[in-house]
Amino acid sequence: MRQVPLRSVTVQLIILFVALFALFEIASLGYRYLSRTEALISLEAIRIADHVAVLTSLAEQTPPKERSTLTKHSQGSGLHVSWSEGHWPRSALSQNEETNLLHELLLGVLPKAKNDDVFVGFGTSKNATTGANEGLTANWQTGRPFPDPVSDVISELAAEPTFYLSIQLSDGTWLNFAAAYVETLVFWPIRRIALLSLLVIGSVTLSIWAIQRLTSPFRVFAAAATRLGTDVNAKPIEEYGPLEVRSAIQAFNEMQGRLQRFLEDRTQVLAAVSHDLRTPITRMRLRAECVRDRTQSARFLEDLREMEDMIEGVLAFAKDDALSEPTISVDLMTMLQSICDEVSDRGFAVSFEAEGRCPYQCRRVSMRRCFANLIENAVKYGGQALVILKVQESDIAICIEDSGPGIPEEHYEDVFRPFFRLEGSRGRDSGGSGLGLTVARTVARAHGGDVILGTAEDGGLAVTVTLPTNQAISEPPSIPAAAE
Question: N vs C: which end of the chain shows fewer Cβ within 10 Å?
């Protein structure tokens, strides 16, 4: 399965959008949770203070003999009340912000109460009271099951009492309360999470559609830039997309047009100069034949013949530069085997190795010219040629090795320049116009590949042609002809 690179604009923007949505929702949920907790604390304190104030008012109006009956019938699901001569053991209880809030509320709703008449403590130990837990939420717990969140509240209320309150009556006795207090609830906003999930899924879907729509011109633009490296005569890009992209495409098309005009002018000048040189060469040939010294005449004629070969190569190079050749599927193994057989039939030692058939989309004539130039160079300058075809994961490699003296590493790039020659076996005596390697590299690069020089195992020259396996060749191409 093809992996999506993290450097892709689409992936990065989707991650950014999802992260922003998630962060916003988490912050919103956190704020709502904190606000809800604060509101819950205030409501619980008001509820408890209201119940305590009502029972305290009733106890003040009830004769002492009937107060025990009053407290017995005043037990609630979240409030335990008792009447006694003393108050809760204050040393076993502690204070916090909630007890202070509840103390202030009680002083507000009990106008006649003084500060010492009201005590509010916080405790989690059952040792603070005796029997205070009995009866709390008993009716609710023994009732039928309740749905959420009612069952969660009942479970919280059924827990150990939190607030212990003591209110002194006018006769000096005390009403002692144990109030079940829900400080927090388990907060799992299922609906919010489901809504967030749907929002993320919808956002990702819309983001993929929108980003791909916005970035499609960039993909076309990148493909056109790659195609320009192999075919300067490719069709201009259609101008579409956002204004900024349209401006970039327009600038690219103008640049391509200027390149086309430049190459066309260069080709025409090159062809004109090469053609015009034929006339003085012809005159020089006639004059050389009139030289009485036959040795000097032969040298003149040889130099003129070499000049004619070079001009023929330049004309061939320029003549086919603007021609188009369709891209078709060929079998590289069959093509290489055919070239090797032809060279071998001329008496040269050529061997070919391949692992199997290799279908490839290319310009057949140009590609055959590339391989023929390299194989003929190998047998001409190295005495023999070993051709190896390897199909690799990312590219196709065709290695051509000979047994000659090779080429010094510092001249690896120089030999690809037109008409560049080395001394020794690769000098003038071997013949040729000096455009063979130039044409080979031009053809390979026109297909998105390259020609790389190296040293063979036996010390000869190793020429490797690399071709991409997934290279799309545009039409029409612009491939120079061979002159070797």
Answer: N
Q: What's the pLDDT band for 472 if we cut at 50, 70, 90?
A: very low
Q: Which CATH number describes the domain made up of 227-322?
A: 1.10.287.130
* DSSP-derived pairing of the beta strands 384-391 and 349-354: parallel
pLDDT of 220 strictly over 80: no
Structure tokens at 52: 């305590």
The 8-class DSSP code of residue 476 comes to S
How far is Cα 149 from Cα 186, in angstroms, rounded to an integer? 9
Instruction: In whole angstroms, give the CA distance from residue 117 to residue 58.
Output: 17
- H-assigned helices in 320-385: 332-345, 364-382
Residue 388 CB neighbours (<10 A): 17
CA-closest candidate to residue 86, choices 43, 130, 34, 54: 130
φ, ψ of residue 177 to 5 degrees: the values are -115, 145
| Tokens coding 361 | 């989309």
pLDDT in tens, 389-413: 998 878 899 999 988 888 888 888 8
Tell me what pLDDT residue 352 has.
92
Report the distance separating Cα 414 and Cα 421, nearest Å.
9
